[in-house]
Amino acid sequence: MDGGGHAAPPGDAGAHAAPAADGPAPVLAEGRHAHHNGPVNAHHHENEKSSSQERITPRPTFLENLASSRDSQFMLDRRDSDDLDRYFHGPRDLDRHSKWPIMLRMHGSVMPKLILPIVFVAGWSTLITLLSHFVHDLSVDNILLTVLGFVVGLSLSFRSSTAYERWMDGRKSWSLLIQTSRNLARTIWINTSEREGELGKQDLLRKLTAINLILAFAVSLKHKLRFEPDVGYDDLAGLVGYLDTFAKEAHDRQTIQPRKKSIWKATGEYLGVSFADSNPRKLVKRAKKPLGHLPLEVLNHISAYVDSIIANGTLSISLHQSQAITYLAQFNEVVTGSERVLDTPLPAAYSIAIAQIAWIYVLVLPFQLYASLGWITIPGSIVAAYIILGLATIGSEIENPFGHDVNDLPLDTYCRQIALELDTITANPAPKVHDFSMREDNYVLYPLSTAGLPAWKNRSVEDIRSALRAKVVANSRKTASNASTMVEEVNAKLNKQSSV
Predict the structure, then answer these.
(1) Is 325 buried (19+), middle (13-18) or exposed (0-12) by CB count in 10 A?
(2) Cβ atoms of residues 293 and 224 within 8 Å
(3) What is the mean pLDDT of each run of 10 residues along the chain (500 residues)?
(4) For tag attachment on the chain, is the N or C end more exposed, with fewer CB atoms within 10 Å?
(5) What angle do CA 237, 241, 246 make, to 5 degrees?
(6) Are 431 and 245 in contact (CB under 8 A)?
């Protein structure tokens, strides 16, 4: 499915409809464009206008090809990418399990990005070794190795700890988002009542709308953190395409249909060549219209829904009202926390200094090793360079945990998790205590007794409390045989009492 990737902007959506002075022409309920084919249709549209005060606008073209399942919505299988792209690009699929030893795995490794630096270090160490052996001894006292090693270790430790802290802060923000989504969805679905008749149907559909907006908030936040400002993406178009947002007005099909990368650019990205990396904010910088802030705009619509259910009395308990408003504030906290991680990287002075310190140590290393190792200087320098530059590269990669690297946070998986959990919550009506508690297979004193709640309902309170005490005695027995005997004795006693 190519989704919204080949969609036209919303401005194209009304091209097939007859123009009107007060806005786009109406469409049929199924979402197809309505055409004025004669007086009958004209009369039909007049009746539609008179029967409904709400404007029915044409469906944007990016809504014509939507996902048919959660997997296709979030494209976790990456059908449109080749094997190399699926292997070296992420984020990592948490559902996959590899039996390869960790030291032999390439998926998630920074090895591809270290190929060119290691080749350079190999050539450099070979040059120094050859000059020292055939021309002039360039070796220096290895006391410099000890001094510089301490500084390099301190720098890499600082780089790794700050990068991991940012990665973990991003994970905490998305953990809070998942938790708040569950809580707010439960408050809407369970604690918000539904009125009788047509109003009840309207309440149900509005509940579903609000719960879909919870998912839309998570997905729109994911795209914003990746500097993807449009609404026509496969996982987002069907959730917010009907909302009036700045992102919808600024929709551009070229944004979600980028040009295919050349083989040289793709190879450069795999190898970590800095000149091949594109500016991640380029889509935002090239926008010709205001992009707004889609997550906050979605949050505004959720807030409007919460206000409406408080006003019409369907969310009547004050505690639930306070909780719903608190959940909205937590959503805003998630946005702020994620943007803090995204917009405050390690200061450039630190990044530059750490990179320079690591490279100075690697380049000076052959001079210090030659006196002790001779020709072993070449492989020794390569191993040391791999360790030092590898740690520096990992710190640089996870500094922004919201991107598309294998080691970045799997935001697509988190969004799919939220979607499936919301589907689970809405799969059944709000449960009623009387319906599920009175079932025959509700073993309230299990494992002491396999009698259902209806059977215990016919016994006295003293019998129930006596059985609860016997349950403790039975569970404290050390052997299974003694415990089972105790259960049989209690059941026989209770049956005798009930018969009397």
Answers:
(1) middle
(2) yes
(3) 38 38 36 40 44 52 77 65 53 66 75 89 95 89 81 91 94 96 96 94 96 97 92 89 90 73 71 70 80 95 97 94 96 96 90 92 91 91 93 89 89 93 94 89 88 89 89 69 58 61
(4) C
(5) 110
(6) no
